[in-house]
Design a protein that fits this description.
CATH architecture of the largest domain: 4-Layer Sandwich
Low-confidence stretches: none
Bound molecules: nicotinic acid adenine dinucleotide, adenosine-5'-triphosphate, glutamine
Pathway: Cofactor biosynthesis; NAD(+) biosynthesis; NAD(+) from deamido-NAD(+) (L-Gln route): step 1/1
Radius of gyration: 26 Å
GO molecular function, one term: NAD+ synthase (glutamine-hydrolyzing) activity
Number of domains: 3
Organism: Nonomuraea mangrovi
Strand order of the largest sheet: 13-12-9-8-7-6-16-15
Family: Belongs to the NAD synthetase family. In the C-terminal section; belongs to the NAD synthetase family.
Keywords: ATP-binding, Ligase, NAD, Nucleotide-binding
Number of strands: 20
Structural class: alpha/beta
Number of helices: 18
């Protein structure tokens, strides 16, 4: 057996900030060296951040990525870290003709090994995923080389993220070619339940590859995606060896006993089992074995439960959107209802209540308890609050333009939106909008009113889960919240019947079915894409199916104008679900 101590750098890069990401590479490599690591692994496209979307189409950005890689190799050596091999993701360019409509030089989702001031080898993602939130085929060409480098007598193979998720390709080739360790840089966004899927997948791939597998994942928020980290090492038998924490940065050091390499260096082409050929390039970096005098105990971070995971994703999504976009404070409208209460709580936990500003804006239809519930939240959390009664503005507007029915009702929501945007302009706060997924699905919000804002923390949270999360948060005071308050949400906001309070005695259930019924139907229609016949066969009421499908379909234009917010379900409104706005296809006639 040979030994290796590997360091998994589960870090939070910033998209487009090559200088900051390079500085982080240096800093974390220094820490890994201090920890006695023999190899450091960074995440997929770490130098550029992930996903960079149409920045890939800018030749200048690809050039900058390659230049940053070259500079990083030199800088590591200058800083005395050259002896420690570093595997890092970056954007590369292939020696290929580009596909139609794309820039010259065909971009690659690449990874490189840096050692002694040089780029020792490069590889690139082979499987280009083009489903869900991903568009890799739009951007990249397929990698067709698989490096296997010998490090202290162990053969180490490299595969990039999606290459683990597909049958055939790099994993199948490692199985044929042989290696002692497979390492994989990843940028795998969070959604509910994905951590269990990942662990099972990695166990299976390790067995297929016939070697241990080290999986390092990005952490942090990037627009509507949240990366959860949760880096994992499994043995060749698929058994879990080590696991990093979720939703936080961590340098995970793992000691591994691995088989001594016995294959000859050289280049060999393999049938990848997916209709392609992959060339394995086996070479020696170092053959001398190492001993590990004081082994590190294998660390398996405790798992968050399901609601804790979702809550952590929302908090991190808000924290990183705020910080990475240069804001220091947020503002939102606080009604005393549960949506704005939960949004305020997430914001307080993300950036601290001293940086959260709430505005209470009662109208003539606001109930007494709404104002009292909002004030109670302010008292519990210590957020900055101001009261702006909107009746005078609404009445002034009505004097000039006569509006009736829904047009008059929406005016209140729009005046509130205007107040928020005014205060945002004046003080530089980011406006958080409070709509949940059930409302977004059915179009139950006022355009340029309560949907106005820059970021939408709970837009992917169905209303029934809004209550669940609120109860969960009131029962927990974990150390990673930036607000150290027990039971931050007034119980009355959780238990009262939901109402838009845009007209007298108005309740959501006047126009919508109970949320338990609605959310089940929305899940089947939006997330599972069932057609109307399948929905009825699944037990949903036929009249309700027709009504809800119509509401969902007609609200596409509102969703298209809604701000981004963190994805937590397998299918969010945004990158996961792209429908035409101008669209006459209907599941049900009418
Ligand atoms: N295809 C299309 N493409 C682009 N724009 C389109 C459009 N169809 C309509 N429009 C525009 O959209 C307007 C209608 O949308 P909008 O102005 O929003 O108004 P609308 O959807 O008619 O009314 C808002 C609804 O949301 C409910 N609401 C409001 C506020 C808060 C809550 C809550 O409980 O949280 C619920 C309220 O009770 C009402 O049912 C039209 O007047 C038109 O200007
Ligand atoms: N009186 C109010 N003061 C301040 N903001 C309000 C007020 N009424 C509504 N809002 C804002 O408009 C959003 C839409 O709220 P609305 O009361 O219409 O129903 P909701 O969707 O159930 O939300 P919530 O549960 O937060 O009340 C609220 O989340 C809040 O941001
Ligand atoms: N960046 C990637 O290649 C990620 C793809 C992969 N299926 C995932 O979510 O985890």
């Amino acid at each position: 057996m040979a030994h290796l101590r590997i360091a998994l750098a589960q870090t939070n890069p910033v998209v487009g900030d090559l200088a900051a990401n390079s500085a982080k590479l240096l800093d974390w490599t220094r820490q890994a060296a201090a920890g006695g690591a023999h190899l450091v692994l960074f995440t997929e496209m770490f130098l550029t951040g992930y996903p960079v979307e149409d920045l890939v189409l800018r030749s200048s950005f690809v050039d900058a990525s390659i230049a940053a890689l070259e500079q990083a190799a030199a800088r590591l050596a200058e800083e005395g870290l050259g002896e420690l091999p570093v595997l890092v993701g970056f954007m590369d360019r292939a020696d290929l003709a580009p596909r139609v409509g794309r820039p010259k030089g065909a971009p690659l989702d690449g990874a490189a090994l840096l050692h002694r001031g040089r780029i020792v080898t490069r590889t690139a993602k082979h499987h280009l995923q083009n489903y869900g939130v991903f568009d890799e085929y739009r951007y990249f060409v397929r990698g067709d080389r698989l490096p296997v480098f010998r490090l202290h007598g162990v053969d180490v193979a490299v595969a990039v993220c999606e290459d683990l998720w597909q049958e055939g390709g790099p994993v199948a080739v490692v199985g044929q070619a042989g290696a002692g360790l497979l390492v994989a840089p990843n940028a795998s966004p969070y959604e509910r339940g994905k951590d269990d899927v990942r662990l099972e997948l990695l166990a299976r791939r390790a067995r297929e590859a016939g070697c241990a597998l080290a999986y390092v994942n990005q952490v942090g928020g990037q627009d509507e995606l949240v990366f959860d980290g949760d880096s994992i090492v499994v043995g060749a038998d698929g058994e879990l060896v080590a696991r990093a924490g979720q939703f936080r940065e961590e340098l995970l050091l793992v000691d591994l006993d691995l088989p001594v390499a016995d294959r000859e260096p050289g280049r060999t082409a393999y049938d990848a089992g997916d209709g392609t050929t992959i060339t394995v390039d086996r070479f020696v970096l170092s053959s001398e074995p190492v001993t590990i005098d004081s082994p590190v105990a294998p660390s398996v971070a405790p798992r968050l439960d399901d609601m804790a995971e979702v809550y952590a994703a929302l908090v991190l999504g808000v924290r990183d959107y705020v910080a990475k976009n240069g804001f220091t404070s947020v503002i939102l409208a606080l009604s005393g209802g549960i949506d704005s209460a939960l949004t305020a709580t997430i914001a307080s936990d993300a950036i601290g209540p001293d940086r959260v500003h709430v505005v209470m804006m009662p109208s003539r239809y606001s109930s007494k308890h709404s104002v009292a519930d909002a004030e109670e939240l302010v008292r519990r959390q210590g957020v900055n609050a101001r009261l702006v009664p909107i009746d005078g503005v609404v009445t002034g507007f009505e004097k000039e333009i006569e509006l009736t029915g829904p047009a008059a009702e929406n005016l209140q929501a729009r005046v509130r939106g205007m107040v928020l945007m005014g205060l945002s302009n004046e003080h530089g706060h980011l406006v958080l909008t409070t709509g949940n997924k059930s409302e977004l699905a059915t179009g139950y919000s006022t355009l340029y009113g309560d949907s106005a804002g820059g970021f939408a923390p709970i837009k992917d949270v169905p209303k029934t889960m809004v209550w669940e999360l609120s109860r969960w948060r009131n029962a927990h005071t974990d150390g990673w919240f930036r607000m150290d308050v027990a039971r931050p949400i007034p119980e009355n906001s959780i238990t009262k019947e939901p109402s838009a309070e845009l007209s007298p005695d108005q309740y959501d259930t006047d126009s919508l079915p109970p949320y338990e019924v609605l959310d089940r139907l929305l899940d089947d229609y939006v997330e599972k894409d069932l057609g109307s016949a399948e929905l009825i066969a699944a037990g949903h009421d036929p009249d309700l199916v027709a009504r809800v499908i119509r509401l969902v379909d007609l609200a596409e234009y509102k969703r298209r104008q809604h701000p981004p917010g963190p994805k937590i379900t397998p299918r969010n409104f945004g990158r996961d679900r792209r429908l035409p706005v101008t669209n006459r296809w209907r599941e049900t006639p009418g």
